[in-house]
Structures are given as C-alpha cells and as structure tokens.
Amino acid sequence: MAVASSRSRPPYWLWLFLMSSNRKSRHDFVVVASRLPVDRVEDADGSTTWRTSPGGLVTALEPVMREAGGVWIGWSGDAGPAPGAFEADGLQLIGLGLSDNEVRHFYEGFCNATLWPLYHDVIAPPQFHRRWWEAYVTVNRRFAEAAAEQAAPGATVWVHDYQLQLVPRMLRQQRADVRIGFFNHIPFPGYEIFAQLPWRRQVVEGLLGADLLGFQRRADATNFLRACRRAVGLTTRGSTVRVRELEGSRTIQAAAFPISIDAKGLGEIARRDDVRKRSSQICDALGEPGLVLLGVDRLDYTKGILHRLRAYGELVADGRLGPRPVLIQVASPSRERVEAYQTLRDEVEVMVGRINGEHGEVGYHPVHYLHQSYPREEMAALYLAGAVMLVTPLRDGMNLVAKEYVACRNDENGALVLSE
Ligand code: GDG
After folding, report:
1. Strand-strand pairing, 48-52 and 38-42
2. Which of 211, 262, 300, 396 is catalytic?
3. Does residue 208 line the site of ligand 1, with CB under 6 A?
4. DSSP code per residue over 47-89
5. Is 365 an annotated catalytic residue?
C-alpha cells in the first residue's frame, strides 16, 4: 500500500509547480451566482460570442465586479458540458455545466416553480417535488465546490440569490478560512408562507453558513430571523443569530442592504448625443403621440404586466389619458420553458391585441409591445422617450427599472408611477 501511494504522488518539483500555479489561479474575490452575466450567442458563421444578459442581478453586480476584479462563477444558461474558465468583455468567468435533467429539476423546477412563486408570496402556486429538491442539493454542491476551488486563502466569497441558498454552508464545510457573504435579490417571505416549504430547515441552515446575510428590505431580514427561530429553534438578538458549531459558536448578521445601479454610468449614457437622437427617433416613429407611457420588465408574473395593461386599457377607454396615448411595453423574454411563463406570455399578447383592436386605428396603436432584449443604449433612449414610467410589480425584491428611469432623466422631467 505504501509503495502504491508513494508511486502515485507526483515528483517534488512537479508538486511545487502545481501548488504555485494553483495558487496563482485562485482569487481574493469570488462571486457565485446561478447564471453568468453573459449569454452564449451563436453567430451566423457558427462561432460563439457572449452577450450581457438582461436582468437585475447582472445590472447591479457587473459594475461592482469591474471595480473589484475577481472571478464570477455561474451557469451559462444552456444544458451541456461546463464551458470552464474564459474571459468576456473584461470579466473573468468560470462557467459551470448543468445536464438536461438538472435544467429541468433544478432551474425550471425547484428555482423557478418552487422557490420563485413561494418567495413572492405565492402569487402563483408553488410546486413541491422531492426530485427537484434533490437536484437543488446536487447543483448547490457543484457551485460550492467550484467556489472552494477558486477562492484564495482568506478570500471573500459572495453568493447570490435564492438558487444557491445551500452554498454558504457547503462552502464553509470545505473552506472555513474564507469570508462568506450572501445576498437575496428577491423578497424573503413571512414565516406562514415559508413554512409551506418542506425543506425550510435545510434552507435556513444552508444560509447560516454565511458570515453576513444581505436582504433588500428590513422586512425581508426580519422574516429570515423569524425563520431562524421557528424553523431551527435558534435565538436571535437584534439583527444577529448565534449558531453553535463543533469549533465553537459563530455570530451571523442578517440585515437590509438595498441594492442599486451604476447611476452615474447610466446617466452618462443618457446624456450622449446618439442616445438622445435615438430617443427622438422613437418618438417620431410613434407618429404624433399624446402621452407616452413606458413599462420595462422581464416577462414575469410578479411584475404586474397584465394588471397594468388592464388598467391602461380602462383609462384609454375612458379617455382619461388625452388623445392618442401610447404605452410602450418592453417585456424581455424570460424563463421561456417554464409553463407559467408561457401562459403569461399568451395572456399578455391577447390583452395587447384586444386593447389595440378596440382603441387603435390605421396608423395608431395604443400599445407597442416589444418581446425582445435591447442594448443598454436603447433602454436609455426608451427611458428618455417615456413621459410616464410605469413600475407596478405585485411583489419585487427592489426593482432597478425605477432607479434607471430616474438616473436617465437628467432633465428632471418625467413621472414615475411606482406600486407600493
Ligand atoms: C431581481 C429581483 C431586484 C430588462 N430588459 C432588458 C434589460 N433589462 C434590465 C433592466 C433592469 C433589469 O433588467 C431588471 O431589473 P429588476 O429590478 O426588475 O430585476 P429582476 O430581473 O426581476 O431581478 C429584483 C433585482 O434582482 C436586483 O437585486 O431589483 O427585485 O427580482 O436593469 O434595465 N436590460 C437590457 N436589455 C433588455 O432588454 N440591456
């Protein structure tokens, strides 16, 4: 046995080399999020390029990453083998792979059909399946292992969102030396709702592997602290929880750190001549509109798009928005393989058709519905074109669109309609 093990060990010089090269590839700052900040795009010639993906997490984190350096670990969005380490648009990325089954059970299932509706106060019914939970555990372990591999001694690892709630504990078990932060981008529900989750105890214990837990609002942090008491029987004091571990006890802080945007960067884009010109072109293309209203959302049932359209249709019918009002609704494609999202898309498109059919005329559509993703410059031009911005989610962690609209309106004009 002894001979076999000494034979399998690499020679000393090789071992030294491996250790030093391994250390070099390790990072002091590691972001772990379920998705990479870029989507793979197949060009016409079959080559692959990467394009920044839309969504609040990327908007909020990308500028932080650019400033702090470090590496971002995430899934590329396609089923299949891991893309591994690569650089895109100046960011160091490590792409992990998910199998077809894991996409179905982990991503579409547990993340988007169990946790997402549950954490948004069950505005759609959540589904609970053991196989989905098992995939959640497996995939969380993969992310934790990748983080453990990438983190330099004493590094800071920042884990993001509801898809990876087990990672903090799994990572701590492998790397007690790293500092672990976790940020929840979506609401954390009240205990009566959270208690519907059969695996609530494991989720709370998973999160408590972090040193610092961040939430969007104080109410979310309070809900989490209550879950610590009720689901795990822990004692909380102010914003802290104390847990006993083999090595002694540890104090974890759970508090609100509302997320924001790179307001200065976006404000500068909105000042650019080409963007302002594009904004005028958009207004010209609308003919001679009256009031221009704007909605920008991922096509998600939490965002209240259907309710907004219905309300707009009634205001148009009553003539309360003046002559020829126009609503531009950007609904960027999202989670298109999840059934609830397919149904929502159908419902939204039927409603848009109905409003345009009833109140439009040749050369005039009261609703311009855009089921597409646009570059940041186009978004800024749209924000400049909209005299009224409608941000009316039913539930939301924060909502960055509201902040983006304000950041773009250097002229201090425009009205933001924000649901409570
Ligand atoms: C979660 C929480 C929380 C949208 N379409 C395009 C595009 N977007 C950008 C917007 C904005 C972002 O996506 C959406 O922001 P939200 O705040 O609505 O975020 P969610 O995606 O729901 O994400 C949310 C957020 O995390 C951050 O913590 O606020 O509550 O649900 O930045 O501009 N961007 C581009 N093209 C598009 O077509 N470039």
Report:
1. antiparallel
2. 396
3. no
4. -EEEEEPPSHHHHHHHHHHHHH--EEEEEEEEEBS--EEEEET
5. no
